[in-house]
């Protein structure tokens, strides 16, 4: 006696292939967007870290009464870390770069702007992080008409 199989109980191979193709399409759209958002979040976190380091250096310069044509103060990480909360000046960037902190001030008495080694990277996009405003200390940059970030020549940069 022959068994008769009921075709209504399962999915056909074509139906399964269509579902897999749809899932693959959704993943191919979602993953690059997720990775870009993650990269941008790491760059913004780095911006915040650089701003905190710069503010701590400003505090030290104020405390030490830094003046134009005065002595250039060497970096004292213990003193800088005293002004940072929840972080250390020697920590790495959230994107994996390292910070160039430099001395406290330059010969003109201005606080030296810290930098991140990731600012010249483009992550395969063709635009550098610096042009996109990521991995930089934004208060020491200006934006051009196209929206790209450019270093302000009034500042001295550590990197």
Give me the secondary-structure topology:
Layout: H1 13-63, H2 77-81, E1 99-100, E2 115-116, H3 129-132, E3 141-143, E4 149-151
Antiparallel strand pairs: 1-2, 3-4
Distance between the termini: 84 Å
Strand order of the largest sheet: 1-2
Q: Beta-strand percentage?
A: 5-15%
Into how many domains do the coordinates divide?
1
Question: If you compute it from the alpha carbons, what radius of gyration comes out, rounded to the nearest whole angstrom?
Answer: 26 Å
The helix/strand class is mainly alpha
Provide the low-confidence segments as ranges.
none
Percent helix:
25-40%
Order of helices and strands: HHEEHEE
Largest sheet: 2 strands, antiparallel
The overall strand count is 4
Q: Would you tell me the overall average pLDDT? A: 88
Distinct helical segment count: 3
Shape: elongated
